[in-house]
């Protein structure tokens, strides 16, 4: 695979599994140095990548903690790209007792946490005069999702609007901001859920690597003129 990310340092959140892990593997194959973050440090993944010759280190922080997010970004000497992948999608019923509390947690992880992270990253990238941000959204924001609950749909809808706001703010500093909106994907988040393949034109849900490859492209110089876009990677569920 071409080493399109040679010499770039990329921070990936939610890196321990699923789309985050696949993104780390793809970016490593393409030559990037990686800072891999999750609530617990993804040491096993880092060991795997280092054994393959990929420069990588593991860190841990909670994206809901603004100070922790800022400290994590500040500790990276140069940050060429951010992949904001940390997410939370409970499969619940909004009629359940206690649902309002879950709503706030979903918004805090998927939207407020995103703002904590990108605020810190923008300051660093602006000082550098360049950078890429890729926010991982969802097809749920496009058309209500195949099975997602309303708190997740609302949070990801907010992500789509935020991408445009942040892209306009960041562009003058040489920083591009885009998002990828996956459809249902084979990850821990969807394990145990049933999806009707007949509702997906490609007749299957995605493999994590199929989401990771477009993310890696948006981190590369090949995406230098893409700004404020949401790339739909959903097997044809939503066509824009």
From TrEMBL:
PROSITE patterns: ADH_SHORT. The keyword Kinase does not apply. GO terms for molecular function: 3-oxoacyl-[acyl-carrier-protein] reductase (NADPH) activity. Pfam families: adh_short_C2. CDD domains: SDR_c (cd05233). Keywords: Oxidoreductase. GO terms for biological process: fatty acid elongation. Its EC number is 1.1.1.100. Signal peptide: none annotated. InterPro entries: KR_dom, NAD(P)-bd_dom_sf, Sc_DH/Rdtase_CS, SDR_fam. Residues 8-211 form the Ketoreductase domain. SUPFAM superfamilies: NAD(P)-binding Rossmann-fold domains (SSF51735). Belongs to the short-chain dehydrogenases/reductases (SDR) family. This is 3-oxoacyl-[acyl-carrier-protein] reductase FabG. It comes from Achromobacter anxifer. The gene is fabG_10.
């Amino acid at each position: 695979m071409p080493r399109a990310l040679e010499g770039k340092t990329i921070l990936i959140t939610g890196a321990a599994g699923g789309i985050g892990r696949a993104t780390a593997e793809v970016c490593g194959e393409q030559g990037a140095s990686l800072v891999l973050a999750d609530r617990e440090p993804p040491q096993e993944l880092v060991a795997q990548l280092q054994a393959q010759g990929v420069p990588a280190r593991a860190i841990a922080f909670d994206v809901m903690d603004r100070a922790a997010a800022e400290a994590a970004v500040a500790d990276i000497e140069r940050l060429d790209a951010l992949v904001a992948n940390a997410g939370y999608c409970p499969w619940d019923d909004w009629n359940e007792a206690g649902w309002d509390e879950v709503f706030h947690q979903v918004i805090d992880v998927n939207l407020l946490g995103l703002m904590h992270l990108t605020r810190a990253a923008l300051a660093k990238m602006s000082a550098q005069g360049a950078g890429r941000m890729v926010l991982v959204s969802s097809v749920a924001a496009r058309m209500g999702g195949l099975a997602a609950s309303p708190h997740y749909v609302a949070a990801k809808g907010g992500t789509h609007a935020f991408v445009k706001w942040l892209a306009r703010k960041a562009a003058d500093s040489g920083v591009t901001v885009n998002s990828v909106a996956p459809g249902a994907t084979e990850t821990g988040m969807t394990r145990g859920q049933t999806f009707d393949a007949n509702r997906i034109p490609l007749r299957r849900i995605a493999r994590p690597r199929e989401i990771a490859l477009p993310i890696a492209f948006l981190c590369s110089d090949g995406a230098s003129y893409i700004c404020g876009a949401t790339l739909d990677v959903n097997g044809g569920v939503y066509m824009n």
